[in-house]
Amino acid sequence: MSHATVNGATLHHDDLGPSTGLPVLLIHGHPFNRTLWTPQSAALTAAGHRVITPDLRGYGASDVTPGQVYLSDFADDLVGLLDLLGIDRAVVGGVSMGGQIAMEVQRRHASRVRALVLSDTSAPAETPEGRAFRNQLADRLLAEGMGGYADEVIGKMLASYNVTALPEVAAHVLGMMRATDPRGAAAALRGRAERADYRDTLAAASCPVLVVVGADDAYTPVADAETITRLAPHAALHVIEGAGHLPGAEQPDRFNRVLLDFLRDRVTG
């Protein structure tokens, strides 16, 4: 693990694989950390790619900024990290909130994006009901901590049947959620509640876009992924059977095969 100071915060990250490989930046969702991408890092580096997996500000080992952290703040942090690593353009991928951050990178820094990988995410701005929910959840996490929330949502983060079928995966996901600093989680929730509408950004994207979704995603269902695919001119959709909101963790072999094929056929081919 390495660390770098970007925009006043120390971000911990892994930078794996050959420095000459295709750079792939993978962004975790809420409330996780960079270890969510461990199966993808192994497969990508084995294929000769360079993989950067950061802990976002407020998550994992990175510094916490209390209050409110916007998706634009995360996007600028990540581009600043690419600058420090000497990477001009990268494949930028993310899951859930990480997918929205990837779209924010495209919106603010399109010249830095070689391709997008959008897993289990959604493009529209938050609804009024969604804004209220995220702010209320932020209040709750600050008051109660992460434990009760983690126990409540594990059956939605993973497909419900995978909580028992994949006990090691469930334990890892629960561990990440419970270990997250409530101040970081709350700040991200408040910022995410004010996120931009990314539909115009997707419609204007000239880069290749891989859209992936778990077949049984309870948070951002297949219909959301289909909407993203229709919006982006150069998008391809893959539905991962046997998975919920985190197909890269639930079905890593299937997810990795789709990702590696996309990089080979649409990015480097």
Automatic annotation (TrEMBL):
The keyword Transferase does not apply. The keyword Amino-acid biosynthesis does not apply. Residues 23-247 form the AB hydrolase-1 domain. GO terms for molecular function: hydrolase activity. Keywords: Hydrolase. It comes from the Bacteria. Pfam families: Abhydrolase_1. This is Alpha/beta fold hydrolase. It comes from Streptomyces castrisilvae.
